[in-house]
Amino acid sequence: MTFPEVSIITSTYNRSAVLRRAIESVRAQRDFDNWEMCVVGDCTPDDSEAVVASFGDPRLRFYNLPVKSPPGSHGAIAKNHGVFEMARAPYIAYLDDDDEYHPDFLRVMMGAVAKHPEQQVFYCRCQYRDKKTGRRIFGNPFQGWLHRWDREKLQRYNFINTANVIHTRALIDEVGGWDPNDYFDDYDLWKRMSEKTDFLYVNRPLVISHVGDCPPFFVRLFTKGWKILRYGRRLKDQG
Predict the structure, then answer these.
(1) Strands 199-211 and 100-101, how do they pair?
(2) 213 pLDDT exceeds 70?
(3) Is 37:10 a contact under the CB 8 Å cutoff?
(4) What is the pLDDT of residues 32-70, one digit of tens each?
(5) How far apart are CA 157 and CA 171, in angstroms?
(6) Is 91:168 a contact under the CB 8 Å cutoff?
(7) What structural domains does the chain harbor?
């Protein structure tokens, strides 16, 4: 059996319509086809399994968790199932069910992996679109510069989107998986990984992230910032 080079993990709940778009973006990758996509339903009641099966692509696999994750866990349990129970590749990537890869995402990112095999974490940038209209949202014009790797900067704020990342399976085995008790579970994981290694920055917008109609900066400022002030960084602090 030939194993894939990269396993793409997608957690989903009741979003089969947009899930199809995410899958299509993976299957539309240019000049790189040695991937698998592990789609994990968070006890989803919709037709997500049928959507995955409709492509007839053996690189696509689906599993539906038998019990719904606790509120606020943000798909962490589903992602962990995808990583530790389904993924077969030495590299792990993520794609949210409502986002898309640029057609060159895997070619460019796995090209960086091939050029820098000593690195364990790679990340790129996003292009943002309004999830209702599909129109391009122009955020911070200094995004390319602001996203450059800096461990100290990462301790102050999270500048890395989940879908932008590819990392080794060995590293997540070492630091542990996604923490369902941490409201900012992606940020928590990046910080734990950064204690072990530097990240390699690919300065290209290779992910299409569908967000609300506010610029991404203000989304983070007024939603995540408010939740930090109100609840703290961990769910247990809410009680």
Answers:
(1) antiparallel
(2) no
(3) yes
(4) 999 999 999 999 999 999 999 999 999 999 999 999 998
(5) 22
(6) yes
(7) 6-238 (3.90.550.10)
Q: Name the band, by pLDDT with cuts 50, 70 and 90, for residue 225.
A: low
Residues in the chain, total = 239
pLDDT on residue 131 = 82
Q: What are the start-end ranges of the H helices in 35-150?
A: 48-54, 76-81, 105-115, 143-146
What span, in angstroms and rounded, lies between the C-alpha atoms of 19 and 52?
A: 9
Closest CA to 164 of 233, 112, 90: 112
Q: How far is the C-alpha of 209 from the C-alpha of 148, rounded, in Å?
A: 19
pLDDT at residue number 177:
98
Per the CB < 8 A criterion, the answer to whether 10 and 60 are in contact is no
Over the Cα atoms of the chain, what is R_g?
17
Positions of E strands within 27-184: 35-41, 60-64, 91-94, 100-101, 121-130, 136-137, 165-168
CB proximity list for 120: less than 8 A, separation 6 or greater: 167, 168, 170, 171, 193, 196, 197
The tokens 């709940």 sit on which residue?
13
Q: 157 near 174, Cβ under 8 Å?
A: no
pLDDT, residue 96, reads 95
Give Dmax (Cα) for the chain: 51
CB atoms within 10 A of CB 117: 8
- 66-89 burial code (b ≥16 CB/10 A, e <16): eeebeeebbbbbbbbbbbeebbeb
| Closest alpha carbon to 44 in 18, 71, 66 | 66
Instruction: State pTM to two decimals.
Output: 0.87
Q: Give dist(CA 40, CA 103) in Å, integer.
A: 23
